[in-house]
From TrEMBL:
Ranges for region Disordered: 358-402
Keyword Membrane: yes
Stretches assigned to the G-protein coupled receptors family 1 profile domain: 55-320
Main localization (coarse): membrane
SUPFAM superfamilies: Family A G protein-coupled receptor-like
Biological source species: Rotaria socialis
Keywords for the protein's UniProt record, in alphabetical order: G-protein coupled receptor, Membrane, Receptor, Transducer, Transmembrane, Transmembrane helix
Polar residues bias (residue ranges): 383-402
One GO MF term attached to the UniProt entry: G protein-coupled receptor activity
Biased segments, Basic and acidic residues type: 358-382
Name of this chain's protein: G-protein coupled receptors family 1 profile domain-containing protein
InterPro entries the record matches: GPCR_Rhodpsn, GPCR_Rhodpsn_7TM
Origin superkingdom: Eukaryota
Keyword Transmembrane on entry: yes
Length: 402
């Protein structure tokens, strides 16, 4: 149903009650506005999937380059990009599906029990693992500054994969119940997701409160503490080194410190500011508004906050380009190499085509050369065979009977 149809139905319904036309007309016009905002934001969800997927894949390719993948921090950021890509195809994709694909405005999770459990499980795990890998980046850098032996003992690159595996296992174990308990089929045959037969509030708000702590509050507290310490420590060390270093080295150190500080601050606060409002709403306000507000108004609030939340998982590529000069340099080098390789391939194909067209005897001469080379190779093999003593027989020698 489009906006004009919704407006016509609303006015047709209001015509039956002349005494309340003025108030209800305002309500109907507000509903039309709400529906317009909802449809625009659902299109934004699709745009976010496209831009976020391309950006995260480019981020992974750039971070896997030789100059960057040797760093511990980069390995965590690769996992963050993978998790961010997965998270965009859960609740964010449902926003587009519900208002542009589904004829009954049903949720993507309500197609089947399998859809309900897999989508909810993958969304919870990917969101939590993404936030904790960002937390691990800040924690690793803070420990490098606080404990000088951290990098040589427990902060080595070879240990990073074990830390990532541990974080992944914890997030999966924490949400494994969603994969087996979430959703049920009602007596009418429809799918009721994010609830069980005996507990309607199984996910919202009960498990969502746990998700708020794991996904947002704990990572936010750790990242704030670590980043504050990193900023203070880097500023102190830069001041102490400035007195004994040449001006050119001072400028390079200050630039590196500014890049590091800017990257940590931007990524951390972008994550918190964009994800915290949605988590707070779904935990504390969603059920309270169900009895006091209209359905379209609630949908508008939910999709607005959801769009803001998943924006944080689709813009890290642009944040890295803006705040990390090394990332931008690697991206430029990669694009330059791709363009040069493409140009070299085109030149090679052009050269082969020109030579083939201008030399009609090229094919015949090539075959003749191949035959000559083959004959020479056979002659060399025969000569080696005749000269090899292990393959020769002694004249007049007969084999003895066994």
């Amino acid at each position: 149903m489009n906006i004009s149809q919704a407006s016509d139905l609303s006015m047709e319904y209001l015509g039956k009650f002349p005494g309340t036309v003025s108030n209800e007309t305002k309500s109907a016009s507000l509903n039309v506005r709400h529906i317009f905002v909802i449809r625009c934001l659902s299109l934004y969800a699709l745009l976010l999937i496209i831009v976020g997927t391309v950006g995260n894949l480019l981020t992974i390719v750039v971070l896997l380059r030789k100059n960057l993948r040797r760093l511990v921090t980069i390995r965590y950021l690769i996992i963050v990009s993978i998790c961010d890509t997965i998270s965009l195809y859960g609740w964010n994709l449902n926003n587009f599906y519900k208002f542009h694909i589904s004829s009954i405005r049903g949720n993507l999770e309500e197609i089947s029990i399998l859809h309900c459990r897999i989508i909810s499980f993958m969304t919870f795990v990917s969101l939590q693992l993404s936030s904790w890998c960002l937390t691990a980046v800040s924690l690793d850098r803070a420990l490098n500054l606080y404990w000088l032996h951290w990098k040589q003992s427990y902060g080595k690159r070879k240990y990073t994969k074990y830390y990532i595996i541990i974080l992944t296992f914890i997030c999966i174990a924490l949400n494994i119940h969603v994969l087996f308990l979430n959703g049920y089929r009602t007596s009418s045959g429809s799918i009721e997701c994010y609830a069980t037969e005996n507990n309607p509030g199984y996910i919202f708000p009960q498990w969502e409160r746990v998700h708020l702590v794991v996904y947002n509050l704990c990572p936010f507290a750790i990242m704030c503490i670590c980043n504050t310490y990193i900023i203070v420590a880097t500023v102190r060390s830069s001041r102490a080194q400035d007195e004994s270093l040449p001006p050119t080295v001072q400028r390079k150190n200050l630039e590196r410190y500014r890049q590091l500080t800017a990257l940590l601050i931007i990524v951390t606060f972008a994550f918190v500011l964009l994800t915290l409002p949605a988590c707070i709403y779904f935990v504390f306000f969603r059920h309270n508004l169900e009895a006091t507000t209209e359905r379209t108004y609630r949908y508008m609030i939910q999709i607005s906050l959801s769009s803001v939340q998943f924006t944080s998982h689709g813009i890290n590529f642009f944040l890295y380009c803006f705040s990390a000069k090394s990332f931008l340099n690697e991206l430029n080098d990669m694009l330059t190499e791709c363009l040069s390789c493409h140009q070299v391939n085109n030149d090679q194909w052009s050269f082969v085509g020109v030579r083939t067209n201008n030399d009609p005897e090229h094919e015949s001469s090539s075959l003749e050369n191949q035959r000559t080379d083959h004959n020479r190779e056979m002659e060399v093999k025969n000569q080696k065979f005749n000269n090899a003593p292990q393959y020769q027989t002694t004249s007049g020698q007969e084999s003895e009977p066994s």
